[in-house]
């Protein structure tokens, strides 16, 4: 794509690895990777699978080189492992403000068609999965859903009793204001006033 995206944010890691590894075979010009890498730099990767695929491209080291890397405590201790021992007590975080997210589910593909909408209030910074959970609490007979855990995080496989089926090549597609989400429900964080759609789709 013109902005440097290769497929979507989940496919970027493997695509960059492949392009970097095969760059010697390009002719007559080199691959300009600046745009693609800028996409990766701007994204906040959180899923272990996505991180494990994008890191080799970022450091220019294949997995086979991992055993030869030299690390020290000063260079390998991430901020997440720092503690407050010996420091003044850490202040308690302030409660997050509530935001409103509009949520709709639509099926115009199989069986009895349906379209339902609702709005839910969730703490700012909540993931889309939290929005789905609140909608299901509010109207369980309409917005009930099921997820499966994958290496990429939770994946929604059924909404309103309608399950995705790989044999039919069907799945639940999530959109924000009409645009397909590039992150899963366990990572994506809707903004206040955002319109989220779950549309039963085929690929």
From TrEMBL:
Where does the protein end up? Secreted
- Which domain of life, per UniProt? Eukaryota
Give one GO term, molecular function aspect.
cobalamin binding
The alphabetical list of record keywords is:
Cobalt, Cobalt transport, Ion transport, Secreted, Signal, Transport
InterPro entries assigned: Cbl-bd_prot, Cobalamin_Transport, Transcobalamin-like_C
Residue ranges constituting the Transcobalamin-like C-terminal domain according to the UniProt record: 125-197
> Any one cellular component term from GO for this entry?
extracellular space
Q: Which GO terms describe its biological process?
A: cobalamin transport; cobalt ion transport
Keyword Signal recorded: yes
Does the record's keyword annotation contain Secreted? yes
Pfam families for the chain: Cobalamin_bind (PF01122), DUF4430 (PF14478)
Where, by residue number, does cyanocob(III)alamin bind? Answer: 8, 53, 181, 203
Per the record, the major location class is secreted
The similarity comment for this entry is:
Belongs to the eukaryotic cobalamin transport proteins family.
Tell me what this protein is called: IF factor
What is the taxonomic lineage of the source species? Eukaryota, Metazoa, Chordata, Craniata, Vertebrata
């Amino acid at each position: 794509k013109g902005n440097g995206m290769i497929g979507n944010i989940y496919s970027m890691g493997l695509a960059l690895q492949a392009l970097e590894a095969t760059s010697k075979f390009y002719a007559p010009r080199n691959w300009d990777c600046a745009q693609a890498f800028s996409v990766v730099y701007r994204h906040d990767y959180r899923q272990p699978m996505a991180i494990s695929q994008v890191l080799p491209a970022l450091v220019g080291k294949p997995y086979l080189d991992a055993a030869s890397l030299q690390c020290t405590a000063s260079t390998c201790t991430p901020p997440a492992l720092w503690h407050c021992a010996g420091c003044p007590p850490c202040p308690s975080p302030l409660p997050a403000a509530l935001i409103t997210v509009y949520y709709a589910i639509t099926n115009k593909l199989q069986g009895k068609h349906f379209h339902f909408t609702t709005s839910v209030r969730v703490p700012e910074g909540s993931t889309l999965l939290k929005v789905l959970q609140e909608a299901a609490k509010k109207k369980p007979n309409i917005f009930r859903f099921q997820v499966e855990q994958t290496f990429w995080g939770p994946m929604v496989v059924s909404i309103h009793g309608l399950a995705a089926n790989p044999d039919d090549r069907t799945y639940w597609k999530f959109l924000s204001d009409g645009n397909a989400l590039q992150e899963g429900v366990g990572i994506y964080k809707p903004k206040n006033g955002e319109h989220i759609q779950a549309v039963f789709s085929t690929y």
